[in-house]
Amino acid sequence: MKRERKNVLVSILVNNFNNEKYLNKCIDSCIKQTYKNIEIIIFDDKSTDSSKNILEKYKNNKIKIIFNKKKKFNSGPLNQLNSIYISLKQSKGKYIFLLDGDDYFLKNKISQSIKTFNLNPKIVFLQDNPIYKYDNKNILPKKIKPKRKIFVNHTWPFFSPTSTMSFERDFLVKLLAKIAFSKSLFDQMFFDARAFIYIYFFEKNYIVSDKYLTIYNQNLKGDTLKNYQKKNKNWWVRRLQYHCYVDSIFKRNKKTHFKFIDYYITLLINLILKI
Fold first, then answer.
1. Where does the pLDDT of residue 194 fall: very low under 50, low under 70, confident under 90, or very high at 90 and above?
2. Residue 25 belongs to a domain with what CATH number?
3. Nearest-CA neighbor of 247 among 191, 190, 185, 176?
4. Can you name the residues that pair with 16 across neighbouring β-strands?
5. Is residue 120 a part of any domain in this protein?
6. Helix (H, G, I), strand (E, B) or coil at 56
7. Is 209 helix (H, G, I), strand (E, B) or coil?
8. How many separate domains does the chain show?
């Protein structure tokens, strides 16, 4: 039986931490969607800038603000997971769209995505292509292929950011349970990596759209990019966690997985860095 998806309620879950420079534009991009049957839930993870004052101005019957009083973890990626989990429990939408506080949606993002869901009634996960924004310049990267290899040259996993991801609600609830591990494990892995790696290997009903519908702002992430380029200790720790995460989800699903050569190289470098 074909599921009816027309004009269903959509929940946009916004995760914010110290994004005062971009927060207004982020929220406005949700409000100005051509698709109108939406609710917006914003989780502020104890921001220390003027985010709270900005958010107070947006409170209404379609926008719910959650102010986190105390960070649960000493880890950005784990706090992000916690944000999604709490916001999801407060939401009512049939479909869930994720958005970081420094990114934006194009005005037809929801309508185009719901159209794709309607045309493909079995899918539970949809990902669009991001427009990268560097120093106020929009850059269109090469379009991501729907069935691309997630590991380029069997080394580093390649996927799009959280803000390009949308889910059928029931699937996201199950997914959060499947990608959750002890807080001491994978504390450097953000949601986008956990989710897409799992979906890529164990979920058939997903689509990677060829449409550019999300602006991914790189300005605030510059420090992180510099760290990666320098290949410091955290960079190698995160790289190892990606490999170990893949092994763990295969074991959890009782499937076999062969480690890449890069895993052993990365493991060796991590051991050297600990000496």
1. very high
2. 3.90.550.10
3. 185
4. 44
5. yes
6. helix
7. strand
8. 1
